[in-house]
Amino acid sequence: MEPVLRWLAIFILLSSLLPYIHAIYCEEDDCYDLLGVTQSANASEIKKAYYKLSLKYHPDKNPDPESRKLFVKIANAYEILKDEATREQYDYAIAHPEEVFYNAARYYHAYYGHKTDPRAVLVGLLLILSAFQYLNQWTRYTQAISMVKRTPAYKNRLRALELERSGGITNKKKASKHINKKVEEELSNELELQIQGAEKPCLWNLIVVWFILLPYTLGKLIFWKGSWIWRYTIYKSAYSWEDACYLTQRSLRVPQEAWRTLDESKKNDLVGRRLWVKSNMEAYLTELRKEVKRRR
User: Fold this and answer.
1) Which of 23, 41, 94, 97 would be a feasible disulfide site paired with 45, CB 3.0-4.6 Å?
2) How far apart (Å, rounded) are the C-alpha atoms in residues 42 and 54?
3) Residues 285, 296: Cα–Cα separation, whole Å
4) What is the C-alpha separation between 110 and 114, in angstroms, rounded?
5) Which of 34, 54, 35, 55 lies closest to 43 in space, CA to CA?
6) Range 45-54, long-range pairs (CB < 8 A, 24+ positions)
7) Would you list the domain boundaries of the chain?
8) Alpha carbon distance 101, 67 (integer Å)
């Protein structure tokens, strides 16, 4: 008895949803009936039927308020049936009324999915993300600069720069006073403040720029990798200074900015140790551990 009741409930549910299939297309009407054609009518017959009915029920031709409503329905039916894709979907919905949710999904995808270009969505998303990225970097940078400007070291640098610009001419009265705000602003523009972790935002580092330059970056990477394999794997050449620095930096896992700020003598020492060789790296780490223990 329970299976019968279950199937009966499903039948009642589907029956209640059947009008919905027509509603998403031509409301309670049949699109073919609105145009006065059969389901087997070709595109030319559908077009002729629409133009004939539009002349009869167009608001400019027929002042009756009801004709305006009917004209809207006729125009909607024609929009559905004139396109082969939407007509095929509508025919499928008529033939398979039990597939309510599938038919509804196809309808909304056909009418709303294609109206938004995925490329435009992607570009818009990248622009929004880049705007947030730039705003976040600028906020961090301004906050860091503001904190640095409060430190005594920064004020001392400003005073030193002021003395340099004035040729070292100053007096006790002038030295005891604070630097004029306008002068301080001019001097601060001359000081290049490099704050680790809060660098000044750059357009080249934005996501949208990375995405635009992605083909170039990939091409450059492939070319670099190919030339690396040719020079050092196939041809067995000695590593150039730049490539040896790259291998050393990668072996030590040192950030690029930190590597750039290293003393040249320290760089020479590290590169000369050939740390990209596993045994050399192990020996270097052992040496560091011994040095740390000695200092303790």
Assistant:
1) 41
2) 18
3) 17
4) 6
5) 35
6) 46/78, 46/81, 46/82, 47/78, 47/82, 50/74, 50/75, 50/77, 50/78, 50/82
7) 2-113, 119-204, 236-295
8) 33
* Core vs surface per residue 60-94: b (16+ CB within 10 A) or e: eeeeeeebeebbebbbbbbebbeeeebbebbeebb
Fill in the amino acid letter for 128: I
Q: Burial, 257: exposed, middle or buried (Cβ in 10 Å; 0-12, 13-18, 19+)?
A: exposed
Please give the structure tokens belonging to residue 72: 């809207």
Q: Report the distance separating Cα 77 and Cα 26, nearest Å.
A: 6
Could you tell me if 221 and 213 are in contact, meaning their C-beta atoms sit under 8 angstroms apart? Answer: no
Rg for the chain, CA atoms, rounded: 38
261 DSSP assignment: T
Q: Tell me the C-alpha distance between 236 and 185, whole Å.
A: 56
Residues with Cβ within 8 Å of residue 193, at least 6 apart in sequence: 145, 148
Read off the tokens for 164: 């340099």
pTM score, whole prediction: 0.46
Q: Quick one: tokens of 268?
A: 């020479």
205-243 pLDDT per residue, tens: 889 899 999 999 999 999 999 999 999 999 889 999 999
Note whether 90 and 81 are within 8 A (CB): yes
Distances (CA, A) of 214 to 29, 62, 69, 127, 217: 52, 59, 53, 16, 5
User: How far is C-alpha 204 from the geometric centre of its chain's CA atoms?
Assistant: 15
CB 157 within 8 A of CB 191: yes
CATH 1.10.287.110 corresponds to the domain 2-113: yes
C-alpha closest to that of 141 among 195, 189, 192: 195
- List the one residue out of 38, 28, 35 whose CA is nearest residue 80: 35
